[in-house]
Amino acid sequence: MKKTLFFTGLLLLLFASLSLALTGVKKRRPLPYEYGRVELNNFSEKAGQIPVVFDHWLHRAKFTCRLCHVDIGFAMKAGTTGIKAADNMQGYYCGSCHNDKTAFAACTTTIPRQNSSKCSRCHSLGRTAVKQYDFRTFTQDFPKGRFGNGIDWEQAEATGKIAPIDFLAGVSIQRDALVVQKDFDLIAKVKGMPEIIFSHKKHTVWNGCELCHPEIFLGVKKGATQYSMTEIYDGKYCGVCHSTVAFPLLDCQRCHTKQVQ
Amino acid sequence: MLVLQFVCSLVLPGLGNTAFASDDWKNEFNTVCGQTQNALAFSVDELKDLIARCDELKPRIKKLDDSQATERKVFLQRLKMCRDFYAFALGTKVDQQ
Amino acid sequence: MVRKVFTLLPLLLCLQAMFVTAGNFPDPQSFGLVILKNYSPRAGVAPVIFDHWLHRSLFTCRLCHLDVGFAMEAGETKINAALNMQGVYCGACHDGKKTIGGKTIFAACAEQFSEEEVKRCARCHSWKKQGVREITFDAFTKKLPVGLGKNIDWEKAGEEGVIKPLDFLEGISVQYDTLQAQQDFSIASEADWASDVIFSHKKHALWNGCALCHPGIYASTKAGTVKYSMLQIFEGESCGVCHDKVAFSLFFCQKCHRNPV
């Protein structure tokens, strides 16, 4: 009896191990034009539409993160905003700009047949959408980066290739310029790993304050919160942006810059 | 303007509320939440005051009727971010003292 | 009885492992061979045979798998002709312009080609074709040191300077300060008949850098937090992602299990 049980167990183990062989960790990385892509399907399919494909690269070249994620109110986690066609038509979310004035109108209640190609500019999952902007043409002379979109966005702004807008009339509040907080070091736990110099300046220029605090970074006192790479890789802290839209975590030494003597 | 509004709300309570109240809470929101970038320069009392004004705004936005559901949703989210940041700034201040 | 079977368990697992790999325990020439056929057959061309031996003698693992972005699992990258022609994947080097050792690197894929150029296609699209390769294994590896199982001892080849793999690709790689390699450590073997593993960070970081293994293959950096099993390794997890596929075979137990008990 025990013997049968044991062999059944062994068999199960063999099967389990074989099935493990099918799951790998070494998946394909998104291509430059795919990086930062978000698929929106909270309501599309239910409404008989193809899900929306949103590309961050085009929008981030034109607008600051803050403008969309603070002023317009898009959540930072894909699929959690719950955007509806009606919202867009009332001038919220996509409709804040896509109102037929600033940019082509997002969503309508009446779709003229000859114009249904308009819908598919956004509702394009699995289709080859005819986009107004082609990634390669648009980013042709942008400074190149190694990962993500293959673009060094920081340099792109420094060299004037992009000038993201931070104010949207009727939506944004007129504000004073921001007083930049100091940069600070984050000491790595692993011996020999360079320290991180966190630049508030680089981050606030596109994000402002309330995009990161306190939702993403609650730690008030320096050193009070211990950040672990494991959590960051799981999409917490820096990982909220730096694995989805901003340069990915593969680029270790872009943050771990201060060589330990 | 405020006086006129006050009079209106006395004379025509229903009308006054719908005609002016909407602008009213938005103005208040713009004033209160348009200062987050200065938050760390504010005193503890100033921050506490801003947080109180946020807390006072919340029920007013919540009261928007269902025809303004999206507006309600968006502004409650924006208000939350703004209020939380002031609370964060206050925490930083208190810690520094 | 049950106890007796338990003592046999390692042996059984080994047998299973052999069963898993038995079909592809290759000769030195085919070791590390990858067949790429995501799109080739559909496009009417022979599948691509990619030999690791040639490329690994010229480039570090990191350069191709991190900077250029080839996934670590065969067939996962989904390379297509269009991408190569855009300078992605194979096309990152195979652009008909870049040179190596004074020779121009032939371009990968083309929209149109003359009959003469078909020969160029066959340099990669060489599945079941004989004598289409310009560089043959025997001629190329003559000068390389041979190790266990008549396989090439790549480590020795690197140490002796017979090969000098490139780690930087103009326009794609980023130059950072060289980090000091993390310390070596030992991984205790659970079996009393097997020695502990001595893991050399230095040897691994030389060609892999950091981000190729962490966190994709090894998420945790805290020693002792993860238990590795030979079963999973044989099935291509952790060490098995490279060892037995491109890096030396898992059957050379003592190359890793080298700490005397």
Describe the structure.
Chain A is built from nine helices and five strands, in the order H-E-E-H-H-H-H-H-E-E-H-H-H-E. Chain A has 261 residues and is α+β, with helices and mostly antiparallel strands. Chain A has two domains: 28-174, Cytochrome C3 (Alpha-Beta Complex), CATH 3.90.10; 176-261, Cytochrome C3. In chain A, the strands form two sheets. Chain A has a three-stranded antiparallel beta sheet with strand order 3-4-5. Chain A has a two-stranded antiparallel ribbon with strand order 1-2. Chain B is mainly alpha-helical. Chain B is 80% helix and 0% strand. Chain C has a domain at 33-134: Cytochrome C3 (Alpha-Beta Complex), CATH 3.90.10. The longest helix of chain C has 21 residues, at 2-22. The radius of gyration of chain C is 20 Å and the shape is globular. Residues 19-24 of chain C have low confidence and may be disordered. Chains in contact: A-B, A-C.
- The number of helical elements of chain A comes to 9
Any idea what the radius of gyration of chain B is?
15 Å
Order of helices and strands of chain B: HHHH
Secondary-structure class of chain A: alpha+beta
Instruction: Could you tell me the CATH topology label of the largest domain in chain A.
Output: Cytochrome C3
Span of the ends, CA to CA of chain B: 41 Å
Question: What is the total domain count of chain B?
Answer: 1
The fraction of residues in strands of chain B falls at under 5%
Low-confidence stretches of chain B: 1-19
Q: Which architecture of the largest domain in chain A per CATH? A: Alpha-Beta Complex
Task: Give the integer mean of the pLDDT values of chain A.
Answer: 86
Distance between the termini of chain A: 64 Å
Shape of chain B: elongated
Oligomer: heterotrimer
Low-confidence sequence ranges of chain A:
10-25
Could you describe the largest sheet of chain A, including whether it forms a barrel? 3 strands, antiparallel
The pLDDT mean of chain B sits at 83
Shape of chain A: globular
